[in-house]
Write a structure and sequence with these properties.
Strand content: 15-25%
Number of strands: 16
Distance between the termini: 48 Å
Strand order of the largest sheet: 3-4-2-5-1-6-7-8
Helix content: 25-40%
Radius of gyration: 20 Å
């Protein structure tokens, strides 16, 4: 709980250049210098970059914490399948207690493969592999599923050891915050990017920007990005697959739980859906519920995100997970198709 509180305070400080941000600013300069040195090692060839035999699309963000990468990955995979591609997903699997390369299966333990990769495997129904090095995950996936003709990398925008063809940079309503690098600000790399400073060796990857929420007024992080809309599904899901319409939950006192980067955003969406939250529990991102010291009263109606549910259902199979739906404008997918085609990539089968 202390960690969640500190994360909340730090994220609030990242939205302006206040006293705490200024105090951390010298460290952000050091972070920027180290990141630039690391990037330079890849650009100079001092560190190897691996190119896989299929196109690679990286879905990531320049902001620390979640900005909607997982729903964006799901939307991209669904689009690729509709176009005739046979996609696979690779990820590091943040928060897992293992470090090997392995395939994620629908019945995998989230503690072994990571909560987001497990959610992606269940929702997208395509091959998913996790490894510390995304290139290793990609090689293993292609060996196990040779029909795969495009890889979508969940996160890994700053993982330059894997060559990529298209980068999808995701922002939420926070934009680029105060515009400073970690830890004085939320940025993992400078934004906007400098044209004179390529991020990766070889042909510069095509870049697309997607806002998963409405941009902040006057924001300058990505003025020409595409804007998606997100909303909760009209139902919640139990561990056994049973669906409960949200209409049936209105008027009942609910306990909402979220172990994501921005739990307050989830709570706000529940309230906007007309639900009554008697209690809210904000936990650190990728939290392991098996180590949670607090008991969960079985008489409570517990509601959570899909990402939390893949770990929470082992303790509370009655917990209700509310899916998040991201509606991406068709122009964004058209731009993605154009960038793949410009690099000579086309689906093997017609849609």
């Amino acid at each position: 709980m202390l960690r969640a509180f500190l994360e909340h305070r730090l994220r609030a400080a990242w939205q302006r250049r206040g006293a705490l941000a200024w105090l951390l600013w010298p460290l952000s300069r050091l972070y920027g210098a180290l990141a630039a040195r690391q990037r330079g090692r890849y650009l100079s060839g001092a560190r190897p970059v691996e190119r896989l035999p299929v196109p690679v699309i990286v879905v990531g963000n320049v902001m620390a914490g979640g900005a909607g990468k997982t729903p964006t990955t799901l939307a991209v995979v669904a689009h690729l399948r509709a176009r005739g591609w046979r996609p696979g997903i690779v990820s590091r699997g943040h928060g897992r207690r293992t470090g090997d390369c392995r395939e994620v299966r629908p019945g995998s333990d989230a503690r072994e493969v990571g909560d987001e990769p497990l959610l992606l495997r269940r929702r997208a129904d395509v091959p998913v592999f996790v490894a510390r090095q995304r290139a290793a995950a990609g090689r293993a996936l292609l060996a196990a599923h040779p029909g795969t003709d495009v890889l979508v990398c969940d996160d890994g925008l700053q993982h330059l050891a894997l060559a990529r063809d298209v980068e999808l940079v995701v922002f939420d309503a926070r934009g680029s915050g105060n515009g400073w690098l970690l830890p004085a600000g939320p940025l993992r790399e400078p934004w906007p990017r400098s044209i004179q400073s390529p991020r990766a060796p070889g042909p510069h990857p095509a870049e697309l920007v997607l806002w998963t929420e409405a941009p902040p007024p006057g924001g300058s992080a990505a003025p020409h990005g595409f804007v998606a809309t997100r909303q909760l599904a009209e139902h919640a899901v139990r561990a056994d697959g049973d669906q409960v319409p949200l209409d049936e939950l209105r008027g009942q006192p609910l306990t909402a739980l979220a172990a994501i980067a921005r739990p307050e955003a989830f709570f706000a969406m529940l309230r906007d859906a007309g639900l009554t939250l008697a209690d809210t529990l904000a936990l650190p991102d990728h939290y392991d519920f098996n180590s949670w010291p607090h008991s969960l009263d079985g008489r409570q109606i517990l509601i959570c995100t899909e990402k939390d549910a893949v770990k929470l259902w082992s303790r509370r199979p009655d917990a209700l997970a509310v899916p998040l739906r991201l509606t991406v404008p068709p122009a964004f997918f058209a731009a993605l198709d154009e960038r793949l085609a410009a690099r000579g990539y086309h689906p093997a089968t017609a849609p």
